[in-house]
Amino acid sequence: MFCEKAIELIRELHRMSDGQLPAFNEDGLRQVLQEMEALYEQNQSDVNEAKSEGRAELIPSIKLRHCCLLRNQRCVTAYLYDRLLRIRALRWEYGSVLPANVRFHMCAEELQWFSQYKKSLASFMRSLGGDEGLDITQDMKPPKSLYIEVRCLKDHGEFEIDDGTVILLKKNSQHFLPRWKCELLIRQGVLEHVVS
Amino acid sequence: MFIADIRKDFYEVVANQRVVLLVAPDIDALCACKILQALFHCDQIQYTLVPVTGWQDLGTAFLEHKEQFRYFVLINCGANVDLLEMLQPDDDSIFFICDTHRPVDVVNVYNDTQIKLLIKQDDDLGVPSYDDIFRDEDEEGEDSGNESDEGSEPSGKRRRFDEGAVERRIERQRAKREWEARRREILFDYEQYEYHGTSAAMMFFELAWVLTKDTKDMLWWAIIGLTDQWVHDKITNMKYVTDIATMQRHVSRHSHRNEDEENSLSIDCMRISFEYDLRLTLYQHWSLYESICNSCYTSCSFKLWTLNGQKKLQEFLADMGLPLKQVRQKFNSMDMSIKENLRDVIEESSNKYGMKDIRIQTFGVHFGFKNRFLASDMVHATAALLESAEKDDSETDTFIKALDALSRSNIDRLHSGIELAKKKLIAIQQTVASCICTNLILSQGPFLYCYLMEGTPDVKLFSKPMALTLLCKYLLKAFVLSTRNKRCKLLPLVMAAPKDVEKGTVIVVGIPPESETSDKKNFFGRAFEKAAESTSSRTLHDHFDTSTNNAENRFLDGKLFLKFPERERCE
Questions:
Q1: Cis peptide before B103 (omega within 30 of 0)
Q2: What is stated as this protein's family in its record (chain B) (predicted)?
Q3: How far apart are CA B119 and CA B108, in angstroms?
């Protein structure tokens, strides 16, 4: 049946609805494009035939193929666009350096798009707040306090904070540290925010 | 040295610094730690919290952090040894010690620069005066100087001078020997008994009060710390009652609001109230029957390990008019009519059965519709969590779980702690019953002795110090009531349980003899050290309580060598 491959692509993204980025399905995309090409060729030949020989009974099949082409196009653009939205969200979640396993799932064009997005976000942030710029990717929720209490979930070794002191992060030790230093480690799962 | 003004000499010193908190594994220390953490959060003092389970842990934690931190706060550890000698710190490390272990080591008391004791100076200490223990070195220098001067005099006079000098030297040496003998005696007297002082949680609550940053949560934690000392039999009854009165003043200060129909507090707010409540452990979270069977006081008074005792219990319940069906179901589901006057009814009946102290002064907390807890409930729940014998949990894991259970937002954890506590109490009761019935307690001359074999059910629970100590006290009480031998009633009890089967180590605990007016002073610290020397078996005096000890199996063979210091006092 036509358009099934395209629906496969959409389903693949739909399965991972929590914002994860699955690997770029180059095969699937190629198959869809091939199908589109085949449909288009058939349509071209049918149109020529209908025009030249006046066979009006070919028109419904031409219309059908045209609808399939439009459908495929819509599915493919939806697939690509949704992936771009997910990649954009990754910048806000992980920071400007993506972990290797995520980068592996992106194709070359998506990587290029990502670096362009990074650049424009960075220049926007620099333009805010006077000379220094403002990092708007920090503090996504309004912070309740300057310092938070964190608990160490695994041995992480030494960790340096802004004024130079080094804290030893040993399993099950608790620390009271500035919020902005801890956010990255909390996202990585080394520290856990303790709400008392 | 003792700190005079806790706000100026401690809090303001650490106010802009980073601090390391080294916390011992007992409930009082956990409560003190929570209070201090809350204060530090208020003032944004950065800190690092490291749980330490013994002297080795303390040493390791100190070595790891000494490069980066200058200020160390030790909670319930470190006062009873010479800390500077043990840790060998640099000159700029400062230690603030808030410890209930007494006697405080004399070096810690008289060191002016590095050790600051967050202990009240009059807290039942009896520290020997400085001159009795420390002698100036200058006097000796003068002696030798004089001698050399005198030696250079002309020979005729020298002989007379020599005689005078020799006499003076002999005199000085004799005085010195006398002084040293007296010093040894004073130190021996001072250090032979181990006991406990005011709760660390109460000390920190007082700090919070002085800073006017005290909250109901901190007050509740201070109450739990105090109750922990009473539940684990660390302080005398008199001291407990005095401290309760202090806490009562704070409680009434915090709940003085006039609550009437219009201005009533929301049901979710925390309310602490003074309760003159029953001494039945966990009875509000259990059934009344189970609680009576598994509480030390009632079980020993009725002698529930005997058939006679069971009959007496049934009579007791019948006397109060409580139907068995009601008494065996969960307390919350008992009929309201029975629950209303329960305390008075039980008190009246207990008086007839010889239990004069069935009620005890304590505090309860109430927040939300479902959550009511007595202070002793919290202590048992947290202690069960702290010493839970799960395979995957290391000691720091259980420390963190127990610390979490003290927050009001972790009620689930507290409930799981209560379930563990119930299992622990049932295990203790069964072990006591079996030990008494099978006569596992042997009299070894100056003390009683009991060894839990490896196959005993629940023996893993008793490889932890607090649980073993609780079992030990319970067993001694039960034994004293069930034996007919008058001499045995005055003996102390030593108990051993396997700690680590693979390594062949045991944990040994000693408690003083059972008496009505005991001052809770424990002499086993010294006794264990001497026994270890004489059997040359490896013992690890790792616990902060000197009366608990880890040893090889061989140590138990040397139990005959346990001789007590001659001047033991059995009051």
A1: yes
A2: Belongs to the CDC45 family.
A3: 12
Q: How far apart are CA B7 and CA B40, in angstroms?
A: 13
Looking at the predicted complex, does its ipTM rise above 0.85? no
C-alpha B197/C-alpha B40 separation (Å) is: 25
Distance from CA of B21 to the nearest CA of A (A): 10
- Contact (CB<8Å) A168/B37: no
Nearest residue to B364 via CA among B465, B282, B462: B282
| Tens digit of each residue's pLDDT (9 = 90 or more) over A95-116 | 778 888 888 889 999 999 999 9
Question: Amino acid identity of B32?
Answer: A
Question: Packing angle between helix B307-320 and helix B342-352, nearest 10 degrees?
Answer: 130
> For the segment B284-314, what is each residue's pLDDT rounded down to a tens digit?
999 999 999 999 889 988 888 889 989 999 9
Q: Which of A101, A108, A105 is nearest to A25 (CA)?
A: A105
Q: Which two tokens stand for residue B322?
A: 């409580």
Q: Which of B37, B44, B68 sits opposite A165 (nearest CB)?
A: B68
Residue of B nearest to A157 (CA): B64
For residue B321, give the 3-state DSSP assignment. coil
H and E: helices and strands count for chain B: 24, 16
**B400 contacts in A (CB within 8 Å)?**
151, 172, 174
**Residue B196 — φ and ψ, nearest 5°?**
-125, 150
Which residue's entry shows tokens 């305390």? Answer: B343
Asked if A151 contacts A194 with a C-beta cutoff of 8 angstroms, the reply is yes
Cα–Cα distance list, B530 to B505, B527, B533, B544, B563 (Å): 19, 5, 5, 18, 8
Bridge partners (DSSP) of residue B508 are B496, B549
